[in-house]
Amino acid sequence: MCAKDEVGLNLLTGRLFREFADVVEHVAVDDSVRVFVLRSSDEDFWMAHFDLHAIMKLPPSAITYPGDRELTPNTWHILCDRLRNMPKATIAEVVGRCGGGGNEFCMNFDMRFGVRGSTCFCQMEVPLGLSPGGTGCITLPGLIGPGRAFEMVLGGIDVDADTAERWGLLNRCFPDTASCRDHVDEFAARIASFPPHAVRAAKASLLAVERMPRREACLETLHLFNQTLAYPDARKRMEAFLGRGGQTRPGERDLQGTLSKL
């Protein structure tokens, strides 16, 4: 998917939000889609932030006061959770600025890749007198640690690509857009070549710790592993691996070469 809005900033407008919600909902259940990649056609802005005009038009009923509590997730939370738990790999190719709600959305992708000198993250609500409310404060500490999350959120600072890579906000950063695009395309194709049931089970296993205590998460990952054993493709691939040099010194020393023969 390639995103761009009519404003020229990739603002999260109501229209863009509805389009994202529609795409995420359909991709999640479309078995022909193996990997979901989101990139922007504007190299200056991946997604600037939520449209402030829309925020300022929220009705008085949207305002809560001390003692009030939200009882149900809003549509934005539902979108982010659906993206986060999608049973297939998701990749954000982040070229340009990514701020506010755009950064919160971005953090719910499984992986993020960026470009040195271009990619820039900012959680900029506090300088505006607001607090991030779209999953950012939940997701960010797990990616970069509590201290750096405080630095980023309370300070409203810009985080460049090199820093984002060191902190864990980016998987990797690249010297230019072309090399980033090539890597993302190649890596997405690699994942797409693997059995979907294995990708689905492995992702659920990685996310298990977010949904349950450690003991239950360990049991869940064991259950998912045992489920993968039921697929004929799993036995076929294990047999092919052994037949092409797996579990031999040469085959294991060149493990990626052996795996590429499956």
Describe the structure.
- The strands form two sheets. A five-stranded parallel β-sheet has the order 1-2-4-6-9, sandwiched between helices. Strands 3-5-7-8 form a four-stranded mixed β-sheet.
- 50% of the residues lie in helices and 13% in strands.
- The protein is of the alpha/beta class and 262 residues long.
- Strand 1, helix 1 and strand 2 form a beta-alpha-beta unit.
- It is built from 13 helices and nine strands.
- The two termini are 29 Å apart.
- The mean pLDDT is 93.
What are the defining features of this structure?
262 residues, alpha/beta, four-stranded mixed β-sheet, 13 helices
What is the topology?
Layout: E1 2-3, H1 14-29, E2 35-40, E3 45-47, H2 52-56, H3 75-84, E4 89-94, E5 97-99, H4 101-106, E6 111-115, E7 120-122, H5 136-144, H6 146-155, E8 158-160, H7 161-167, E9 172-174, H8 177-192, H9 196-211, H10 214-228, H11 232-243, H12 249-253, H13 255-259
Helix pairs in contact: 1-3, 5-6, 9-10
Q: Provide a count of the helices.
A: 13
Mean pLDDT: 93
Oligomer: single chain
- Bin the helical content: 40-55%
Overall, the morphology is globular
Give me the count of strands.
9
User: Which sequence of SSEs, written as H and E, runs from N to C?
Assistant: EHEEHHEEHEEHHEHEHHHHHH
Structural class: alpha/beta
For the terminal residues, how far apart are their CA atoms?
29 Å
- The residue ranges in which pLDDT falls below 50 over 5 or more consecutive positions are none
Strand line-up across the major sheet: 1-2-4-6-9
What is the C-alpha radius of gyration, as a whole number of Å? 20 Å
Major sheet description: 5 strands, parallel
Proportion of strand residues: 5-15%
